[in-house]
Structure formats: structure tokens, C-alpha cells
């Protein structure tokens, strides 16, 4: 099988499985919890996005990994991970800026993931970092989707309450 086909297959299947888990397991459990607690729980996996710095380690990726990708992916994940940690505090302690921080975190996080996924030419250089885009990224995308959906619904309810 060709590398790109294997990557796409693994990425799609991981995304499908995480979406099924989200719908069958997480959504029913999270429906019993308040907004801040749900956001806290969905943010937890993102607090480990510092792992994306592995793209900057020459011994992990293949020689020839485009430095622009390594820098963008590594630092984008690192920044998203730091934002996730801030959001964990904001949701845990119900900071007044919790909702704006959630929006910033989700927009930055999704932009980082889409930027990395849009650079398919780097697939042959992943080596042992292959697990990040084929396993971790699908989890992050599904949890981002779940958070953004809740943010939109909460905003609609706030608008409806003011009308």
C-alpha cells in the first residue's frame, strides 16, 4: 500500500472511532454535567499537545523533514497546549473570561491542526511521530468539534435569553 493511502485510512478510521465513542459514550455522560465541567473534560487531551514538539527532534523524524512544517506543527501544538492548560484553570475556577478563552483556544487549535493536515507532502518524514496525526489528531478534532458545538449552542441560548 502507498504511504498516503495508509495515512488516510488510519486517519479516517481513527476519526470514525473517536466520533463513535463521542456519540455513544462521551455525549450521554457529558449531558449530565454543567457547561464548565464539560469544557474542562473535553480540554484535558489538549493539555498534552506539547507532544507535538517531537516534530522538532531530528532523531525522531526522517532527514529532510521540511523545517517550516516542523516549526509550525511543533510550535502550533505547543501554543495550543499552553492555551489548553490556561483553559483548564479558567473552566475549573469559572473565570469571567472562560468563554472567550475557550473560543480562542478552539480557533487556534483547529487552525493548527488544519494547517498541519494540509501539508500531506511531509507524510514520508513522520517516522515514529506517525501516531500523532493518525491517532492523536483525530481525538483532538473530535473534542474540538464537541466544544465548538457547545460554544455555539451556549451563545444561541444567551442571545435567545436577551430577546
Mean pLDDT: 95
Spatial gap, N to C terminus? 57 Å
Q: Structural class given helices, strands, pairing?
A: mainly alpha
What's the gyration radius in Å? 17 Å
Our estimate of the beta-strand percent is under 5%
- Helices and strands, in N-to-C order? HHHHH
Q: Identify the overall geometry.
A: globular
The number of distinct structural domains comes to 1
Q: Biggest sheet, open or closed, and with what strands and sense?
A: none
Helix content: over 70%
Please mark out the parts with pLDDT under 50 across 5 or more consecutive residues, or reply none: none
The number of strands is 0
User: How many helices does DSSP assign?
Assistant: 5
Describe this structure in words.
The structure is a single chain. This protein has one domain. α1 runs parallel beside α5 and α3 runs antiparallel to α4. The chain is mainly alpha-helical and 163 residues long. Helices cover 71% and strands 0% of the residues.
Q: Which terms summarize this structure?
A:
mainly alpha, 163 residues
Summarize this structure briefly.
The chain is mostly helical. It is built from five helices and no strands.
Summarize the topology:
Layout: H1 3-30, H2 35-43, H3 67-92, H4 98-117, H5 131-162
